[in-house]
Amino acid sequence: MFPTVRCSFSGPLRQITPADRYVVLLDVVPVDNRRYRYAYHRSAWLVAGKADPPPPARLYAHPDTPIGADALRKQVISFEKVKLTNNELDKNGQIVLNSMHRYQPRIHLVRLGPGQNIPITPKELAEVDHKTYVFPETIFTAVTAYQNQLITKLKIDSNPFAKGFRDSSRLSDFDR
């Protein structure tokens, strides 16, 4: 996912026993039940109809977690390895989204007691001690292709996952 979602935690974290660990999860949920299209002449997103059926909800567990409360407070959690797809048949744990729909990333901080497993579905998440954080400024519209060449270039130049699209003739001697 680009740009990358990053977060940090501070303040008191409830730790019942020294064996308790925290896991940080990310999911991406629909903002509404609409499909959108981009109107270039207006430079705006417009409602284009009713949303497609939502793909199955998935939780992405940050690979550095579970960790203790002290370690969690000391580091920035970066979801730079999260990948998004529009392929509902994906078996690689990627988050599945519908193109041209609006989404909201959510961060879930889960306290795992001794013997508890990391939740892998929203139903399992509801059964554990957790707190959910939502940042309205992270709402985005999922797209599969950019029509504006400047936006395409910006994404290719800035997105670490777009290395294969970079034109090697644009690279300096140092970059090569």
Automatic annotation (TrEMBL):
> What name goes with this protein?
Uncharacterized protein
Q: Does the keyword Plastid apply?
A: no
Taxonomic lineage of this organism? Eukaryota, Metazoa, Ecdysozoa, Arthropoda, Hexapoda
PANTHER family, alphabetically? T-BOX PROTEIN-RELATED, T-BOX TRANSCRIPTION FACTOR TBX20
Instruction: Identify the SMART domains for this entry.
Output: TBOX
Q: Which GO terms describe its cellular component?
A: chromatin; nucleus
Q: What superkingdom heads the lineage?
A: Eukaryota
> What species is given as this protein's source?
Anopheles albimanus
Spell out the subcellular localization from the entry: Nucleus
Q: Which Pfam families match?
A: T-box (PF00907)
- Give one GO term, molecular function aspect: DNA-binding transcription factor activity, RNA polymerase II-specific
Q: Which UniProt keywords apply?
A: DNA-binding, Nucleus
GO BP term, pick one: positive regulation of DNA-templated transcription
